[in-house]
Specification:
Elements: H1 2-30, E1 42-46, E2 51-55, E3 60-62, E4 72-76, E5 86-93, H2 100-118, E6 133-139, E7 142-151, E8 156-164, E9 167-174, H3 185-196, E10 200-201
Antiparallel strand pairs: 1-2, 2-10, 3-4, 4-5, 5-9, 6-7, 7-8, 8-9
């Protein structure tokens, strides 16, 4: 009887240790890395959606799309002109509080189903993602997911998804490829990545 009691006690202790380790790992993942803002950069904070970003002083910012069905902030070098480079930050609902990779998988599954339902006559937005490659990324300490080479008609784009609570931020910007319609694509793509990595959640 005493031996059985010790076995049960040992199992309970082992279970407690496993749970503690899992909770500790989750807690560490949820800790936001301290964001380092490059000297001379401007800060943007959106109190309504609880995030902040920084961007170079020579870049422009447009917030006139925040009242759209899918709220959006646009940063660019420049935003308008003959050649542009724009980084779109879309704020999408994530009511099921999916992780970043789960959010992308769910989105692509729904778009593919829509595409099949439409037939060949009216393809859905899924066609943009057919040749895109995906991978896990980390954005300022937050788990994210990136789709690369998303087809956007006049250029291909990178899309980085960062889920947080009931929202998912989608960073959409042109890939490095040289394009006559894209301003300084190589340099600005690197800067776009720097901007994304200044992300900080404020609530």
């Amino acid at each position: 009887m005493r031996k059985r009691t010790w076995i049960v006690f040992g199992c309970v202790i082992a279970a407690v240790i496993v749970v503690a380790v899992i909770l500790d790992v989750k807690a560490k993942r949820s800790v936001q890395e301290k964001v380092v803002i490059p000297a001379g950069w401007q800060s943007y904070e959106n109190a309504d959606y609880g995030f902040s970003l920084a961007y170079p002083a020579n870049w422009q910012i447009f917030t006139g799309l925040l009242k759209n069905d899918v709220p959006e902030v646009v940063l660019g070098d420049p935003i308008e002109g003959t050649t542009t480079y724009a980084l779109d930050v879309l704020i999408k609902n994530n009511t099921s509080t999916l992780s970043s990779d789960e959010y992308v998988a769910d989105m692509l599954s729904k778009l593919e189903a829509e595409n099949q339902a439409n037939g060949t006559g009216t393809p859905s937005a899924f066609v943009q993602f057919v040749n895109a490659s995906g991978s896990d990324v980390t954005v300022a300490g937050n788990d994210g997911y990136e789709l690369n080479d998303v087809f956007e008609f006049d250029h291909n784009a990178e899309q980085i998804y960062v889920a947080h609570n009931n929202k998912t931020l989608v960073f959409d910007f042109p890939v490095v490829d040289t394009n006559p319609n894209i301003s300084s694509s190589t340099e600005n793509n690197a800067i776009a990545h720097e901007i994304v990595n200044t992300l900080s959640f404020t609530k």
